[in-house]
Amino acid sequence: MNRFWKRAGRELGHAAILAGAGLLCAAVSAQTSAPPRTQSVSHDPAEPLQNKPRPKILPRPAGAIARASVDEKSMRSLIHELVGCGTRLTLSSWTDPKRGAGCGRDHVAARFNEIAKDSGGKLQVVVDKFESTSTRTSGKPIPLENVYAILPGADEKLAKTIFIVSGHFDSRPSDVMDPEADAPGADDDASGVAVSVECARLLSKAGANGHGKYRATILFAAVSGEEQGLLGSTHLVDWVKQQGYTVGGMLDDDIVGADTAPGGPHRVRLFSGNGEIDDADSPSRELARAVEEIDGRTAIRLVFRVDRYGRGGDHYPFYKAGLPGVRFTEPLEDYNHQHQTPRTENGVEYGDFEKYLNFTFMGDVARDNAEALRQLAQAPAAPTGAKLTGAVTPDAKVSWSAEDDPERAGFEILWRETSEPRWQLYDFGTAAGETALKGVSTDNHFFAVRSVGKNGARSIAVPTEMERRAPPLPSAPKQ
Ligand SMILES: [Zn+2]
User: How far are the Cα atoms of 202, 204, 206 from residue 211, in angstroms, in the given order?
Assistant: First the structure.
């Protein structure tokens, strides 16, 4: 017990301490606005009043990726090669092997090809060429290329679900239209590319070593055109659709290379947008919650907003399409080291250089991405059509659908207080359809459902939608 708890304990008395840390937290935070009540920390009736389910909890899939298996050296050498291209601005040369975007593409493709060789032929490398236009291409179509490594899923049906990890290999100087200026882009975003490529190495190797069978397909991407207006990732949304995939989740790693503030290592930030549905959560938010649950609260700092204020990233086109897309970014950014043409002014050095990177931190990010992908790609499909009914009755009713899946153990019904950020397990059921939650109000919690495999892997949660019951209102006056 630390000093804080001791002090809180003196103020609240022993009863509160014994009531458990969760209740104690509620009491302590309430203290900031009102003095604690003397008798009890909660005056809410228990819900349900009695016989709360005690579901058994399947352990998560064995064979977690060990931090020690991350190859920081190869991440470092890939970033060094990318920085060595001088600039990787999308408007620079795609044909010069020594300088420009094409140089960046070549190094990523070469590394993916090496990893593919070690995967026993499982990993497939694709260079996807396309054109796109934006104000940052002067309104003219320009050629772009994305590089993908694809690890096909082992399950016939689920192989059409794809989980994506992505970084962008393009970089930019201060002037986003200047193809000549140096733009090392070590952190933004060679770091994210290194994370994506290291995930490919860890997971294609892990798959071969029996760390688990990926039922769904995993796509490791290094895209271009981010700085020109999210062109590569916007194209990727269409590309996966054209290939017949459904997006199970998209992890964008952008600026994940530095952790310079004192007192590290710190947690990586994970951004997820709210979505646009009242009283519910977006698929992106559910992906973020799933990643935090897999990797732990000591590794992931959830930020409930789509991105940093006034900034954008490659998860955004996925998010806007209603798909689960989230963004990893380092804990505290240094703006002198991003989007800056290298120079020194008034004794201040500007530029996105390798020397500011922290490979211990970046290795943690790679491991956390890989483990999230490993578990999500082993999970059964998420349920569909989750609904909440039973308003103005004693029992909330939760219903959902799911296709047959012999590898699925069942479903977890989740709930949370409307003011709480995270789901908790309420009950476990083996069959889709409708379940009545005896003595549970529809009104005091939010509800969701997720699938659980016999291997313990969980799908992302699907919040229940409710039928809107408009309260009686005065009639509109006659015109
Ligand atoms: Zn970036």
Answer: 10, 10, 5
Would you say how long the chain is, in residues?
Answer: 479
The string of pLDDT tens digits covering residues 285-344 is: 999 999 999 999 999 999 999 999 999 999 999 999 999 999 999 999 999 999 999 999
State how far the Cα of 114 lies from the Cα of 80, in Å rounded to an integer: 17
| Residue 233: exposure state from Cβ atoms within 10 A (0-12, 13-18, ≥19) | buried
Question: pTM for this structure?
Answer: 0.90
β 124-132/142-151 pair status: antiparallel
Q: Ligand 1 mean position to 194 CA, how many Å? A: 13
Burial of 440 (0-12, 13-18, 19+ CB in 10 A): buried
Each residue's pLDDT tens digit, 170-205? 999 999 999 999 999 999 999 999 999 999 999 998
For 201, the 3-state DSSP assignment is: helix
Instruction: Give the distance (Å) from ligand 1 centre to CA of residue 170.
Output: 8
**Cα–ligand 1 centroid distance for 157 (angstroms):** 34
**How would residue 40 be classed by pLDDT, with cut points 50, 70 and 90?**
low
Instruction: Kindly give the distance from the C-alpha atom of residue 185 to the centroid of ligand 1, in angstroms, as a whole number.
Output: 8
Question: With contact defined as beta carbons under 8 Å apart, do 171 and 84 qualify?
Answer: no
- Distance from residue 253's CA to the centre of ligand 1 (Å): 8
Neighbours of ion ligand 1 (CB under 5 A): 188-189, 254
Structure tokens at 233: 């990732």
Instruction: Please give the distance, rounded to the nearest whole angstrom, from the Cα atom of residue 311 to the centre of ligand 1.
Output: 9
CA–CA separation, 246 vs 161, rounded Å?
5
- For β-strands 268-271 and 217-223, DSSP reports them as unpaired
Say how many Å lie between the CA of residue 230 and the centre of ligand 1.
9
CA-based max dimension of the chain: 75
**What is the distance in A from the centroid of ligand 1 to the CA of 55?**
43
Task: Look at residue 366 and give its three-state secondary structure.
Answer: helix
Classify the phi-psi angles of 138: left when phi > 0, otherwise alpha if psi is within -120 to 50, otherwise beta.
left
Here the contacts of 113-116 (C-beta below 8 Å, separation 24 or greater) are 115/149, 115/197, 115/200, 115/201, 115/204, 115/205, 116/149, 116/204
Q: 314 C-alpha vs ligand 1 centroid, how far in Å? A: 8
pLDDT of the residue at 36 = 56
Q: Is the pLDDT of residue 16 over 50?
A: no
Q: Determine the distance separating the centroid of ligand 1 and the alpha carbon of 151, expressed in angstroms.
A: 25
